[in-house]
Amino acid sequence: MAKRLIPTFNRVLVEKILPPSKTTAGILLPEKSTKLNSGKVVAVGPGARDKEGKAIPVPFKEGDTVLLPEFGGSQVKLGDKEFHLYRDEDILGTLHD
């Protein structure tokens, strides 16, 4: 079993953040109200190459919280965890506190 997946080219490995299903007071939230497509970057590839062969770095780093598209990406299962693999241009942006 692989312990770590290193993406190739401009790919980014993301673990989706699961929103809380109930409040601190114990009130259950409907599934629709808790839907936010965000995730934490787990691993980043070395980047793509342009026509001259120069490296184009990936604009994200490990630990970034990113906004994900509703559809897309490739689902990857490692052990009991589920990850998604996206191209860097498919990720919509980074989220900051």
UniProtKB/TrEMBL annotation:
Keyword list, A-Z: Chaperone
Gene3D superfamilies registered for this protein in UniProt: GroES chaperonin
Gene Ontology terms, MF aspect: ATP binding; metal ion binding; protein folding chaperone; protein-folding chaperone binding; unfolded protein binding
Domain of life (superkingdom): Eukaryota
Cellular component terms per the entry's GO annotation: mitochondrion
InterPro entries tied to this protein: Chaperonin_GroES (IPR020818), Chaperonin_GroES_sf (IPR037124), GroES-like_sf (IPR011032)
CDD domains for this protein: cpn10
Role noted for this protein: Seems to function only as a co-chaperone, along with cpn60, and in certain cases is essential for the discharge of biologically active proteins from cpn60.
Similarity comment text for this entry: Belongs to the GroES chaperonin family.
Quaternary data: Forms stable complexes with CPN60 in the presence of ATP.
Protein name: Protein groES
Organism name: Hibiscus trionum (Flower of an hour)
Lineage: Eukaryota, Viridiplantae, Streptophyta, Embryophyta, Tracheophyta
